[in-house]
Amino acid sequence: MYLNFKEIGLILKKELSDLFRDKKTMMTSLLVPLIIFPLMFYFMNSAIQNIVKKEEYKIAVNDKSNSSIIEFLNTKDDLNISIMEKEKAEEKVKEGEYLVYINIPDKFEESVKDNKGVDIEVMYDNSSQTSNMAYSKVNQYIMEFSKEIVAKNLNAKGIDLSILTPISVKENSIVEDEKGAGMMIMSMIIPLFIVLYCVTGPMPAAIDLGAGEKERGTLEPLLTTKVGRMSILYGKLFAVTIMGILTAAAAIIGLIISIKINPEMFGGGDGAGAVGMMLSAKSIIIIFIFTVLTSMIFGALQLAISIYARSFKEAQTYTTPLTILAIIPTFLMYMVDIKNIDMIYFHIPIANVMAILKEVTLGVINIQHIMIVFGWSIVYIAISIFVTRHMFNKENVIFRT
Fold this sequence. Notes:
abc type-2 transporter like fold; mainly alpha
């Protein structure tokens, strides 16, 4: 069917003007991602730092023999050790007053001197982050003490300590440690944000340009103008798609601001590991193309639902299941290692877009994968537009109130 691009352009301009004048739509689509993510990551980082930078861990110890290991632990500045009976300590660890309880056996010193193995009971609350961290510290110090005993015994017998480590591993990672960690984190976060906002970003605009216009009574006058019905439809569709793209862009900008504020959360002290993964121009173009395609798919489906709905509220109710269905494969792909992924994922809706975005974020440009997902995206767009056109051509749907 012939499309009048001049008419489409006029409708697109009108709809975008209306959307940008709507403060509620602009707040939810653009300002919220720009503001909420920096704030969210700032408070998350503050909470993590408060745990990590805790000055002292309160430890309860049952040690009737004044063993040397407790003397060793008392030299550690980050441990605040109190001597306590086992029965009392167990309850206090459960309540969170003490983070770890250590029970030293009665014959600990004799066993150590006779080179016999000895078990130390360490109790902690594995449902508490701080208790877990305290346990890791205590376990680390106990291992240090154990190594000191072994070293002392070997020296007494004139044995070289290198016998304990006959083989050493020399690390040689492909990517610098700090940068590699940042790339891995960002390969999970960037695709997640883009897809989520391509799914949810067009929704306020789609609902407003369909059901919203029905409620305001502006859709019928628009249909009585000389502009063709399909030009009106495509003008609305392109406006919805643009809002989806802008929302995804706002989310990524909000993420970049978060990285600048809290770079240590994203794999690098200077932010280079996270932001500076150095996406090539080709990678950015590919990300942009799939952002446009995904926004158009969901924009068209949400617009079709909005046209079908009688009211703004009804449209919101109908679009919620669609959003949930899209979010499920998005989160399923969140932790998938893209460099060890089965080919089937590139044929699953939404999951295939996540897979491509994860590849591109890591600098992997696989033409076969890109063409497969691009082909599927075109199919999904064709189906979505067909559904939307079908709804827009039915008088009993457009005028149902």
